[in-house]
Task: structure prediction
Amino acid sequence: MNLFFFFLVLVSPASSIPLSSVRSSALASTLPFPGDKFIRTLLRSHAPKFATGIPLAVSPPITQRNLALFRTAALNLNITHPVTFLDDSRKFHYPVFETTKCQLGKDTDNVTPFLDSTTLGTYFKDIFQMIPSWTNGDTVLSRFDLFHGHLFANPSTGAVGVVFHSKEYPAENTETFPFNLGYCQINSNVTFVQKIMRKRNIIWIIDDRDRTSLWRVDMGVRTGDSAIDTILGGEPFYTLYEGSLGNVVADLYYLNGLELSVSLY
Result:
């Protein structure tokens, strides 16, 4: 039996969904990532210069257990598929817009919800739904603003995280945002405001002791530490790139009226 297949069977929640073939973990990088110190600073500091902590409610025991298992699976398989957490029987086509020319998801075919028994779908859906209030209304759930996050695994720290990107498609404006972002930007109601744009990234992390935290990152801050400052910046888009933080495992999508769903790498 393949060693990684055996390991996943041991750590994953019970499921009637069969495991698909697992790609070699050799495909995933175990080398240092540019954002290793960025992650370590979030894990070790209660008040990093570049981020503000957002309180998280205590999760039910079953959710805590499954988050721990999910972290382990993501770290050990990295860019391979934690398929036993997902319900293949409920796959669906993620919607497209502008007469099919705007594709929000990275895949043109199916996205997959979490198995209900894991409670992880509800957990991440709740985070999506609460971010607008946590950001004092700076963010809304919409296809122009917040609708997705990127799951990554950082082998150096043992942490797994999700980078939520808001303000994804600001409206084009000749004075404030003179950038054409393609079909998905058409009819955008998101106004570019620099002080809000620089805080467009929310990062959720579960550390190597299975403790969770949520942070709103200010990409416009300069800390004086080049290892951290190289991750920040990026004016005017201010994007925190998940690939700089670890191996990218999956994308999470959520819009009102749809199930929270996952697209695997």
